Amino acid sequence: MTDEKDSGDGAIRRRLSDLVWSTVVLQLVGLAFCGVVALVAWPFGWLPDSWYFASMALLFAARPATELYREGPPRRLAAAAALFALIAVALLVAATADWAFPAGAHRDLDFLAGILVGTPIGAAVLAWFYNRANVA
Questions:
Q1: Model pTM?
Q2: How many whole angstroms separate alpha carbon 109 and alpha carbon 113?
């Protein structure tokens, strides 16, 4: 499979690994942005919580998946499966992290770890559904 391929109906197929890696890189950019905001706001007495980090990482990382969704015909099942995969993996990682490291549970770090792991998996599920539908 090539990087981009026109399937005849105008939809472009992308490699699954490219979408996952771009999602991970954009998550890291979002976390770096949050770190800079925390460093700037720290002298003024404001420290962001883990929900801020999770939401900013999701906002930065959502771009490749939304571009993929906009490229082809909308498939609600693919979007629902990607969202379900994101939530399921986030909850599983959060429960595992809460069990393994109970001291971090009071800061919601387990949820942040779950979101960071679940977002690329959700993007991979979305790309898989789109590539599968374009092959058929």
A1: 0.73
A2: 6
> What distance in Å separates the CA atoms of residue 83 and residue 66, rounded to the nearest whole number?
12
- For residue 134, the number of C-alpha atoms closer than 13 Å in the C-beta half-sphere is 25
Which of 16, 23, 22 minimizes the C-alpha distance to 1?
16
Quick: pLDDT tens for 19-36. Answer: 888 889 999 998 899 889
Write the secondary structure of 51-119 as one string of H (helix), E (strand) and C (coil).
HHHHHHHHHHHCHHHHHHHHHCCCCHHHHHHHHHHHHHHHHHHHHHHHHHCHHHHHHCHHHHHHHHHHH
Structure tokens belonging to residue 110: 């387990």
Identify the sign of the CA torsion 18, 61, 85, 35.
positive
The encoded tokens of residue 8 equal 């005849």
For residue 14, give the nearest of 23, 22, 5 by alpha carbon: 5
